[in-house]
Input
Amino acid sequence: MTAVVLDGGNIVTLPNPDYIITWSNNVPDPGNYIQNNIPWGQYSVSVTALSSGCTSQALGTLGQPSPILASVSPTPACE
Output
């Protein structure tokens, strides 16, 4: 999951020292804007602009992936 911050309609390049990012649900690196290898479930992210003190929060759900299905067809053995 990736947090994308908009400020006045403009995308803010992250990481950025002007913003504090905090994730919920015990993610490995709660201050990082990108979370990798996290289990499926519901997450929230809070972003605080240090210049104004304003905080915004967003919720998201990372779904469980579908099982991988494989089909194997045997071929005749070489003679």
Observations:
- DSSP finds no helices and five strands in the chain.
- Strands lie at 5-7, 10-12, 19-23, 41-49, 55-62.
- The two ends are 52 Å apart (CA to CA).
- The CA atoms of residues 44 and 59 lie 4 Å apart.
